[in-house]
Amino acid sequence: MHCIEGYKSSLPHEDTIIFVVSTTGQGDTPDSMKVFWKFLLQRNLSKHWLEGVRYAVFGLGDSGYQKYNFVSKKLDKRLSDLGAMAIVEKGLGDDQHPSGYEAALDPWMSSLWSMLNQINEKFFPQGPDFLIPDMKLIDQPKIHITYHSVDKVDSQSSPNSDLKWIEMQIERARSMSPGKFTNDKTRPNCFLKLIQNQRLTRAECGKDVRHFEFEFVSSTIEYKVGDILEVLPSQNQAAVDSFIQRCNLDPDAFITVHPKEMNNHLLHTHTSANVPIKLKTFVELTMDVASAPPRRYFFEVMSYFATAPHEKEKLQYFASPEGRDDLYQYNQKERRSVLEVLEDFPSVQMPFEWLVQLVPPLKTRAFSISSSPIAHSNQVHLTVSVVSWMTPFKRKRSGLCSTWLAKLDPEQSIYIPAWFQKGALSPPPPSLPLILVGPGTGCAPFCGFVEERAIQNESSATAPVLFFFGCRNEDGDFLYRDFWLSHSQNGGVLSEAKGGGLFVAFSRDQPQKVYVQHKVRENSRKIWNLLTEGAAIYIAGSSTKMPSDVFLAFEDIVSKEGGLPRESAVRWLRTLEKAGRYHVEAWS
Ligand code: 2AM
């Protein structure tokens, strides 16, 4: 297996290449593929460049999105245009499928193995059947753990509550986890201290949306409106303790974790990944033990270590293609965490190496920033919906990060590790007219836009802004109501006097649903006039259906007001998108 690095010279000499690729945002390539994709699109590559190279593509996508599996389709086409030959039809994994993307993966894998076997028997001398799990465990863990005696441990590892020490622990733990975190997700960009945690919704509306204000406590990071803040959540201490106890681990042991194939030289180099860390700290900072469900391979490996026959049988069934749908129900639909799965199969004792390798990584969570750095120096604000839901078996589940944030008290001195990222919504210059659509927490980035524009407007006149907001009830979840109303009055940036407007859709305040797209259609002429003056459209919020429904509303407007047939209206909007005047930031 290769990293895509070095592809420039090596790609045409490969025999067979297998690509597994996801799609992010609105049909974008994942970050780790960007350089490769740019390279592959070069015009000077001849259409014979990859002749003789065989390939297979499997895409990970979500058919809820308009550009479903867009990147895998583009990649497949480009490889074929460059002369490479597909050995199997591209596979399209769909997260919306009742059995998850594995429903498409299983048949794709089995055709892939059989094709590979036909091409070259040395791939699988025993035939592809040996991939079906049985009593043997073919693999070995890819990592090695060294246990250190306490007296040999670096003095820097002794407990100390200062920020530098916390930063070191995070960097150490996360850079030790091979392949789990990219380099930019090991050492935090900065630490934040919570200074405000305010509920924005009333209990009766059934939603808990909160406004958080944080202060920079280490370095101040420069960010822009529309940027993203990623936060590393803290896991529940009791869950971490239960996991350690369930796995018979010593929380106070000092460990280092290395990839197995690491050479001696690297092993002895003094990097943060080579300094021992407490096992409990390592688990806390890198292994999601109580929230993310493990993947199918976890069950396969568990089956090997199960000593009770009925548990072994059940785990083997879960890991087999026949058990796929039942595993999906048990695991993904019910969102069983690693800890819960291990508790359901008490005879399993998995070595820590396997656990480190297979427990899902503790991921940072990304939120759209809702403040303008010009309006709040040394601060960053978020608008977060506290996630909780019932599984099909009526088990209450809640989002790790939002639930943790909601319980934090600004009086406590807790340092929150954070990373800043550029968002999909580029900051608009003051002279650009704006059409903003942000129902629910989709309003977050637009708080920053409006705040910033109000400040810019104090020195010189800014272009008009139309803002479309949607929520359930006027009295329940009209987020930042006073803020929007104040900017829509007395010559504010959303006021009619400034050519702007505030339009709110209350979806549940009348018998029929009223959504932002209805308000957009009602303001057809106003929107068209602004578009012809060069306005940019910005859409943010839930990814399920809202962005495509809103696109349809704009399509209607362009068609009606611009007198264009439907296909031309779509092309017109696509051109807008290409010109950087149609932006979408959607999240699930
Ligand atoms: P609902 O929950 O009453 O269906 C913020 O979440 C608001 O977005 C809510 O009022 C929600 O309405 C609404 N919403 C749900 N689906 C939507 C869609 N496809 N397009 C626009 N708004 C939608």
From TrEMBL:
Keywords: Cytoplasm, FAD, Flavoprotein, FMN, NADP, Oxidoreductase. Residues 187-428 form the FAD-binding FR-type domain. Signal peptide: none annotated. The keyword Flavoprotein applies. One of its GO terms (cellular component) is cytosol. Its cofactor is FAD; FMN. GO terms for molecular function: flavin adenine dinucleotide binding; FMN binding; oxidoreductase activity. PROSITE patterns: FAD_FR, FLAVODOXIN_LIKE. Residues 1-113 form the Flavodoxin-like domain. It comes from the Eukaryota. This is NADPH-dependent diflavin oxidoreductase 1. It comes from Quercus rubra (Northern red oak).
